[in-house]
Amino acid sequence: MGSLERPDLETNPTWSAARESARAFVASGVTVPVFMLPTIASALNIGMNLYGQELLVAMVVDPPAAHRDLEVIGGVPLDIHLWYRENVPRDLLHQVLCSERYQPPGCGQLCGCSTHLVSTEQYDEFIAAHDDALLSSYPDGGMIHLCGSHTQHIPVWRGMRSLAAVQVNDRAAEDLETYLREMPDKVYYVNPCEGMPLERVEELAKDHRIVIVSEPSRPC
């Protein structure tokens, strides 16, 4: 921890193939379907994939090392998003799961799944700036995907101007009323579930901007 080296994207075969795929799509001249980005993980998700619980431990016992590696990690997905923005026309570029969570052109997306593992203070200190930078790279901000217990971060997200939309499913959907009460200015994409049934979502939608993503398919 603390000595992670940035990968060389220019020589990475997976990234090379992804770029060629995007270029071929644009060169085809089609206007439908839209170009759906692959899921580009957030800084915290990537950090957890690389280090597991050791990243969480480092936030407590070696903050400089955690900051240093997260800075390296966070720069990679940001550069990837910027490449797509520069090389795929705005009206064709979409993320994520355009069959369900369709956002207007000019909006980004990040996965906040693992934020349920950190405290408000840890998220604010180590992660928020990376999430904000990624969403701010899009002209209209973007969406964060949540699927666990994340309401401790509402004080940070409330002031994050780049965060335009929140997508909740599974456990996160149970907290929909809390999100709506605390952040009423956001757009919400909701997967109904046993803990937040479709009927209740429809009631709440009368006073808020809610997109019902799909019918409930399994319990939270």
Structure, explained:
The chain has 220 residues and is α/β, with parallel strands linked by helices. It has a single domain (10-212), classed as Alpha-Beta Barrel (TIM Barrel), CATH 3.20.20.210. 43% of the residues lie in helices and 12% in strands. The protein has helices spanning 13-28, 43-51, 53-61, 63-87, 120-136, 154-158, 176-182, 198-204, and strands at residues 35-36, 93-94, 108-111, 142-146, 163-168, 187-190, 210-212. A five-stranded parallel β-sheet has the order 3-4-5-6-7. The chain has a two-stranded parallel ribbon with strand order 1-2. Helix 6 links the parallel strand 4 (142-146) and strand 5 (163-168). Helix 2 (43-51) crosses helix 4 (63-87), helix 3 packs across helix 4 and helix 4 (63-87) packs parallel to helix 5. The chain is flat.
Short description:
The chain is an alpha/beta fold. The protein is 43% helix and 12% strand.
Features:
single chain, 220 residues, alpha/beta, TIM Barrel, five-stranded parallel sheet, two-stranded parallel sheet, 12% strand
Task: Describe the secondary-structure layout.
Blueprint: H1 13-28, E1 35-36, H2 43-51, H3 53-61, H4 63-87, E2 93-94, E3 108-111, H5 120-136, E4 142-146, H6 154-158, E5 163-168, H7 176-182, E6 187-190, H8 198-204, E7 210-212
Parallel strand pairs: 1-2, 3-4, 4-5, 5-6, 6-7
